[in-house]
Amino acid sequence: MASGSALFAAALVMALMLAGSTTSHAARRLADTAPAAAPAAVPGIPSVPKPPVPTVPTVPASALPPMPAVPTVPAVTVPAVPQVPAIPAATLPPMPAVPAIPAVPAMPNAAALPPMPAVPAVPKVTLPPMPAVPKVTLPPMPFVPKVTLPPMPSIPGVPMPFLAPPPSA
């Protein structure tokens, strides 16, 4: 718990230092600027008297008790760190020789290859104009009479597909 209170104390000191430095910086900036001029009176609006500012009573100086002496911490002798035993040097066998890689056979001379055939140029051709498509009118669709189909015969033991369940009584 001591580390938690020390952390809190450090955070409190840092916060106070930041707050104090910001305030003093602002006070310095205000001291550097010229005092603002009194606003000009607006004609037609009566001036309002300022209310009296109350005086702050003075606080009597009180003597603080003396700071208690911080006790000295006795010196502590720390035992010496034990010596780490030395690891004996190990002799390793010699590295085996890497086998030689056979040489890659040379490629045949590039001059022995036949020359690349030339690609013939595509002749520029003008296409004939597109023929006009004649407008075709279709005859009206023939009338199909509505036909009612007879009911589907039921087979005993085979459920009727897509049949609604019987109404509940």
Task: Summarize the structure in words.
Residues 1-26 form the signal peptide. There is one protein chain. Helix content is 18%, strand content 0%. The protein contains one helix and no strands. The longest helix is centred in the N-terminal third of the chain and has 31 residues, at 2-32. The radius of gyration is 54 Å and the shape is extended. The model has no long low-confidence stretch (mean pLDDT 79).
Look at the structure and give the mean pLDDT.
Answer: 79
Radius of gyration: 54 Å
Structural class: mainly alpha
Total number of helical segments? 1
Helix proportion range: 10-25%
SS strand fraction: under 5%
Unreliable residue stretches: none
Number of strands: 0
Looking at the structure, what is the overall shape? extended
Major beta sheet summary: none
Order of helices and strands: H
Looking at how many chains there are and whether they match, the oligomeric state comes to single chain
Distance between the terminal alpha carbons, to the nearest Å?
77 Å
Short account of what is shown:
This protein is mainly alpha-helical and 169 residues long. The protein has 1 helix and no strands.
Key phrases:
169 residues, mainly alpha, 1 helix
Strand-helix topology:
Layout: H1 2-32
